[in-house]
């Protein structure tokens, strides 16, 4: 299980993440967001947190690495 966090304050809408992982989408504010796509999504004013149990953590890591603002983090979590 892993968690993907988007820091909405750091995101600037470059969307390099969208080309690395199809779960990343543009929201109504012009910032990156996550599509649940088999996971769970929690939203606050400052973050979007997706928790997933699949084999796509490499895609999420690639999206995080592509973000020029370091707005995306991916971390393993205990189930």
Keywords:
mainly beta; four-stranded antiparallel sheet; 1 helix; two-stranded antiparallel ribbon; 79 residues
Describe it.
- The protein is built from one helix and six strands; from the N terminus they run E-E-E-E-E-H-E.
- With 79 residues, the chain is mostly beta strands.
- It has a four-stranded antiparallel sheet with strand order 4-5-1-6, with helices on one face. A two-stranded antiparallel sheet has the order 2-3.
- It is globular, with a radius of gyration of 11 Å.
- It starts with a strand and ends with a strand.
Poorly predicted ranges? none
Largest sheet: 4 strands, antiparallel
3D shape:
globular
Q: How many helix segments? A: 1
Task: Please outline the helices and strands.
Layout: E1 2-7, E2 24-26, E3 32-34, E4 40-43, E5 47-52, H1 57-66, E6 72-76
Antiparallel strand pairs: 1-5, 1-6, 2-3, 4-5
Provide a concise account of the structure shown.
By secondary structure, the chain is mainly β.
């Amino acid at each position: 299980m892993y968690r993907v966090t988007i820091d909405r304050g750091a995101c600037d809408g470059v969307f390099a993440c969208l080309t690395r992982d199809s779960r990343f989408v543009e929201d109504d504010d012009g910032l990156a967001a996550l599509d649940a796509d088999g996971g769970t999504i929690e939203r606050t004013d400052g973050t979007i947190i997706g928790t997933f149990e699949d084999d796509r953590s490499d895609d999420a890591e690639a999206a995080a690495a592509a973000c020029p603002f370091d707005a995306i983090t991916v971390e393993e979590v205990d189930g």
